[in-house]
Design brief:
The strands form 3 sheets. The chain has a 4-stranded antiparallel β-sheet with strand order 2-3-4-9, with no helix packed on it. A 4-stranded antiparallel β-sheet has the order 5-6-7-8, with no helix packed on it. The chain has a 3-stranded antiparallel β-sheet with strand order 1-11-10, with no helix packed on it. Helix content is 6%, strand content 38%. β2 and β3 form a beta hairpin. It has one domain: Rieske Iron-sulfur Protein (3-layer Sandwich). The chain has 120 residues and is mainly beta. The radius of gyration is 14 Å and the shape is globular. It has 1 helix and 11 strands, in the order αβββββββββββ. Bound molecules: FE2/S2 (inorganic) cluster. The site of FE2/S2 (inorganic) cluster has 10 residues, from loops.
Length: 120
Amino acid sequence: MHAAQQMKDEWVMIGLQHEIPQLGSRVVKTPQGDIAVFRAADDHLFAMRDRCPHKGGPLSQGIVYGHTVACPLHNWCMDMNKGEAIAPDEGCVPTYPVKVEDNGMVFLSLTPSGNCPGQA
Ligand code: FES
């Protein structure tokens, strides 16, 4: 297997769940660019590229409500499950799997999980 592919298939440990603020995020720097890991009010975790499909705003600094984040620059709203902009806006960002072990440790996969055409 190619080294880059091995890297993509790995789960990266990014810390403990409670260290990610509720209604906030933590940015993980990866070879694929910055990935924002969000924690919703119900403790669900979501990971998506930290780059708004509109003009590249930092989604990690957006406002989280439900399973949605509003971009801090022009308020586009992104569905964090699918990584898709909510109509009438259009566009998407790659999303990534996140898992939490019993001890609360959070792992991020660098293999995109969504259907965004820009997935890499
Ligand atoms: S850059 Fe995100 S809404 Fe414009």
